[in-house]
Design brief:
This protein is α/β, with parallel strands linked by helices. The protein has helices at about 75-90, 105-120, 150-160, 175-185, 200-210, 230-235, 255-265, 315-325, 330-335, 340-345, and strands at about 5-10, 15-25, 25-35, 45-50, 55, 60-65, 65, 70, 90-100, 125-130, 165-170, 190-195, 215, 240-245, 270, 285, 290-295, 300, 360-365, 370-375, 380.
Length: about 375
């Protein structure tokens, strides 16, 4: 039965408007301002009175490693359980991020994600965060699994993913990296630069070769120096490059979050970079082969101060951006809906409240807490 949302505050990249929205099966079929029409279009539909709550598109996470106590690297059951946690927090579409591992493990994981994506359209594909990372900026990636770019390895990874490799993070200063960027771009994979020591000029070269995303900006890369601007300024300068931010109040200060939204309007992507503890409890976990301790929601490699992902969900990222960083709500919502959809080339079907777009919806209260979630027109369990 078609479902009519009325008395809602619709909010997406087009801004805020009070009105209604109609979905049929897995697609938005109509929207409008004010009260819904009293005609045959809405006759016999099921009605949801939003009570003046916010209604946004479903959130899209380009970069996450797990949640609910489970890691994406640990197989199909773990992936499904972790995704259930994030879906309850508004993330209706996810890219499955994989940490650096032995090549046999990575190819097996890529095949697993491809199989799951064929069964579940809410899984958009995979993201390889490694193995082509700078050793000194490796973060929570095991050094023994990092290798320089190699054309045979590229082909092996692309083949294993069976057309579902959405994103790969590469340190562009590594020997052969620019050629790898060419190969992955030609295969339809979004190339991000990150976990890198890259300088400004080499970053610009990588963007000229087709890289168009910056992995968790400000983290695992050189900062901005007035005589050595580095990859961040190179990304700000290029209108084709989107910028990931982890808005948990730990990875990036709210003041820097606000500055980055102003420096790169309509190019910010809020991501979780979440590990298994997202939506779960403090304690001991693992990322790949590395041990992680989580205390007060902060995840670090055991015995160090090195951040090991986050415990973030995208609803919290949205609240942080709006309330702590003073980002306009429409801009914050776009950063986890329409902008990630555009990065993946899916902005003709995801990320907007408009006819023909997917019926992925999040209802939020006045304080940006999730009240209800629909994905492809189906209500997601709380």
């Amino acid at each position: 039965m078609p479902l009519l949302f009325e008395n809602a505050r619709l909010l997406d990249l087009d801004g805020e408007r009070r009105g209604w929205l109609l979905i049929d099966d897995d697609t938005i079929t109509a929207t409008g301002a004010g009260a819904p029409p009293d005609d045959d279009m809405v006759a016999g539909v099921e009605r949801v009175d939003a009570g003046g709550a916010w209604l946004t598109p479903g959130f899209i996470d380009l970069h996450g490693h797990g949640g609910g106590g489970y890691a994406f690297d640990d197989g199909p059951k773990s992936i499904r359980t972790a995704l259930a946690t994030h879906r309850a927090h508004g993330t209706t579409r996810s890219v499955i991020s994989l940490v650096a591992n032995p090549l046999d493990t990575l190819t097996a994981s890529l095949r697993t994600v491809a199989e799951l994506a064929a069964q579940d359209p809410l899984i958009l594909g995979s993201h390889l965060e490694g193995p082509y990372l700078a050793v000194r900026r490796r973060g929570a990636h095991a050094q023994e699994f990092l290798i320089p770019p190699d054309p045979e390895v590229d082909a092996r990874l692309i083949d294993a993913a069976q057309g579902t490799l959405r994103q790969i993070t590469i340190a562009p200063e590594l020997p052969g990296a620019l050629e790898s960027i060419d190969r992955f771009t030609a295969a339809g994979t979004v190339v991000a630069i990150g976990h890198t020591e890259v300088d400004y000029e080499t970053a610009r070269q990588s963007f000229a070769h087709g890289a168009r995303l910056l992995t968790h900006a400000f983290n695992a890369m050189p900062g901005i120096h007035h005589r050595d601007p580095g990859p961040l300024v190179a990304a700000f300068d290029d209108p084709n490059v989107a910028i990931e931010l982890v808005a948990d109040g730990i990875h990036v200060h709210p003041g820097v979050l606000e500055m980055t939204f102003r420096a790169a309007p309509e190019r910010i992507v809020l991501v979780t970079d979440a590990m298994a503890a997202a939506g779960s409890a403090d304690g001991f976990y693992s990322i790949g082969s590395l041990n992680v301790v989580v205390k007060d929601g902060r995840a670090v490699l055991n015995g160090t101060d090195t951040l090991a992902g986050s415990t973030l969900t995208l609803d919290v990222a949205l609240r942080t951006a709006i309330t702590a960083a003073r980002v306009p709500p429409a801009d914050a919502v776009a950063a986890l809906t329409s902008t990630p959809a555009r990065v993946l080339g899916l902005d003709d079907s995801l990320g907007r409240l408009a006819p023909g777009f997917a019926a992925d919806l999040v209802v939020l209260d006045e304080e940006w807490n999730v009240d209800a979630v629909w994905a492809r027109g189906e209500r997601i369990p709380a």
